[in-house]
Design goal:
This protein has six helices and 21 strands. With 318 residues, it is an alpha+beta fold. It has an eight-stranded mixed β-sheet with strand order 1-2-3-18-9-20-5-4. A four-stranded antiparallel β-sheet has the order 8-19-10-17. This is TauD/TfdA family dioxygenase.
Length: 318
């Protein structure tokens, strides 16, 4: 009898899996761990359902897929301390952080589509999330598959963007987004606590990552983060900006996402080298707290513009 059950995330999606039966005990089985890694490589994202809401299990699930990567900023809350090392807390008190207007609604903790570490020369392999304090409505985390996006992009844009490098910089301010910003977006309140990081980021070198890369399986991945994109390497001109904007706009139009509504017994891992993710935002008067682990692992294709040297802060996970 199988120790775990694996099902598609949703019948109409080419990515994602739902897995039940994962416990600290089942993770001791070598075949279970191998199967989890195979499913992750094939599907790009796993929703673990009915798991024990415990930091130790989050750490052990994460370690199945690689070593943990700690956050470089000491002031970021460590959720587990010495008991569950590697778990950070993401959240804020009501009306404490950014507040934006999206689709006519005021929300906080909204994040546009992106991949983590785009502003660094090295990416991370994956992120693992679980919800500690949920919200009444919204607060959903969205996931989209870069393999699906590559095939969905028009042949004309695919031909123009393939082989290009995209420039990224550490700028967390949404109103500064140059590409793919939603129509009608308004920043009502910036995240004041992040302003020092934003100002410091302006002094740092820009990273370059390929718009399209090829997995060992031969599958091509459209891997463009509209958030924090600065332009196309060697084409920072009106024509290059027009091309990148067209790619981002079509990406957002043709995306087939999965948005996850969180329960306390859910845990999600996604492949940061393949997937984009976003957050829908929620009522600014409600708190929302997530626990996250980050898994090391890079594809070796990114670099800093002009062979510049990076900075410790660029290891920050966003």
């Amino acid at each position: 009898m199988s120790l775990i059950t694996v099902r598609p995330l949703r019948d109409d999606l080419s990515f994602g899996a739902r897995i039940t039966g994962v416990t600290l005990a089942t993770l001791e089985d070598h075949e279970v761990r191998e199967r989890l890694r195979r499913v992750f490589d094939e599907r790009g994202m796993i929703l673990f359902e009915d798991v024990d809401p415990d930091g130790k299990l989050q750490v052990e699930i994460s370690k199945v897929f690689g070593p943990l990567k700690d956050h470089p900023i000491p002031t970021v809350p460590r959720a587990g301390g010495a008991l569950h090392p590697g778990v950070i807390e993401i959240g804020q008190a009501p009306r404490e952080g950014n507040i934006v207007l999206v689709d006519g609604k005021e929300v906080t903790s909204w994040l546009p589509w992106h991949f983590d570490h785009c502003y660094n020369n090295q990416l991370n392999r994956a992120g693992v999330l679980r919800c500690i304090t949920g919200v009444t409505e919204g607060g959903e985390t969205g996931f989209a598959d870069g393999i699906q996006l590559y095939h969905a992009l028009s042949p004309e844009l695919r031909e123009q963007i393939e082989g290009r490098g995209i420039l990224y910089t550490l700028n967390l301010r949404f109103r500064d987004m140059r590409f793919g910003l939603a129509d009608g977006f308004v920043e009502i309140q910036p995240h004041i606590a992040l302003q020092k990081t934003i100002d410091y980021g302006k002094k740092l070198p820009r990273a370059v990552h390929p718009a399209v890369w090829t997995r060992d399986t031969g599958e091509k991945v459209l891997h463009v983060s509209p958030w924090m994109a600065e332009g196309i390497e060697g084409a920072e001109n009106p024509e290059g900006d027009e091309l990148l904007e067209a790619v981002c706009k079509e990406l957002l139009t043709k995306i087939t996402p999965y948005f996850h509504k969180w329960r306390a017994t859910d845990m999600v891992i996604w492949d940061n080298l393949r997937m984009l993710h976003a957050v829908s935002g929620h009522d600014p008067d409600e708190p929302r707290i997530m626990h996250r682990t980050t898994i090391e692992g890079d594809y070796g294709l990114g670099y800093f513009e002009g062979n510049a040297v990076g900075d410790k802060i660029l290891e920050m996970t966003v």
